[in-house]
Specification:
mainly alpha; globular; single chain; two-stranded antiparallel ribbon
Length: about 70
């Protein structure tokens, strides 16, 4: 079902939906203290890399969600 959703998002070019997916991925990572970028990155063992990845996901999410209100050309 999730794969069908991602395919629909891609075909319909819904940029805002990617923002929702990014938030769906990053919020649990903040609470768990582990994110995944090629390999697991733990907040306790490598806080700078962990927060860099998490902040990147959040920025991408906000940018994608902003396409609901702003048209970028």
């Amino acid at each position: 079902m999730a794969l069908i959703g991602v395919i629909l998002i891609f075909i319909l070019n819904w940029q805002w939906a990617w923002g929702i997916l990014f938030l769906y991925w990053v919020i649990p990572d903040i609470f768990r203290g582990v994110t995944y970028f090629i390999e697991p990155v733990e907040r306790e063992r490598n806080p700078l890399l962990f927060w860099s990845i998490v902040i990147s996901w959040i920025i991408m999410s906000l940018f994608s969600l902003s396409t609901l209100f702003i048209t970028y050309n």
